[in-house]
């Protein structure tokens, strides 16, 4: 099997050719660094991805918070992970790095917040004060 790909490990974006022989030997050409070879080999044997999305938040200033998988997950698990993410609901306040889902879809990988979702103020006295730049 011969596959063309562009390396995403650094800004160079090397165009690589990966050949996987029936006996399992993998050859990579076109990479300019060892990271490119590792990326190409992983991509043809066990591709993974980091998943980003949003989760609903109750009691927050914003209705959703940005999230991502804490590590890359097997590519074939993306739809299972997204199903769990879309079913999840967090409670405000949410802080960057908070674990929203543990062991998402049985991957062993947590889903963590990548943005803050502060709680709604309970009354006008608690609301943040915003200075007008026109004064």
UniProtKB/TrEMBL annotation:
UniProt cross-references to InterPro entries, sorted A to Z: CPE0013-like_sf (IPR036593), DUF1667 (IPR012460)
Residue span of region Disordered: 116-135
Biased composition range(s): Basic and acidic residues: 122-135
Gene3D superfamilies xrefs: CPE0013-like
PANTHER family in the cross-refs: DUF1667 DOMAIN-CONTAINING PROTEIN (PTHR39450:SF1), MOLYBDOPTERIN OXIDOREDUCTASE, 4FE-4S CLUSTER-BINDING SUBUNIT (PTHR39450)
Protein name: DUF1667 domain-containing protein
Organism: Candidatus Ruthenibacterium merdavium
């Amino acid at each position: 099997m011969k596959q063309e790909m562009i390396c995403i490990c650094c800004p160079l974006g090397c165009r690589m050719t990966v050949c996987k022989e029936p006996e399992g030997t993998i050859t990579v050409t076109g990479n300019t660094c060892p990271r490119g070879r590792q990326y190409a080999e992983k991509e043809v044997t066990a591709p993974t991805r980091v998943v980003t999305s949003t989760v609903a938040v109750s009691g927050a200033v914003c209705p959703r918070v940005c999230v991502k998988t804490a590590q890359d997950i097997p590519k074939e698990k993306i739809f299972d992970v997204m199903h769990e993410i879309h079913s999840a609901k967090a409670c405000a306040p949410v802080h960057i790095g908070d674990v929203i889902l543990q062991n998402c879809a049985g991957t062993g990988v947590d889903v963590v917040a990548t943005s803050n979702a502060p709680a709604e103020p309970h009354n006008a006295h608690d609301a943040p004060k915003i200075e007008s730049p026109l004064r």
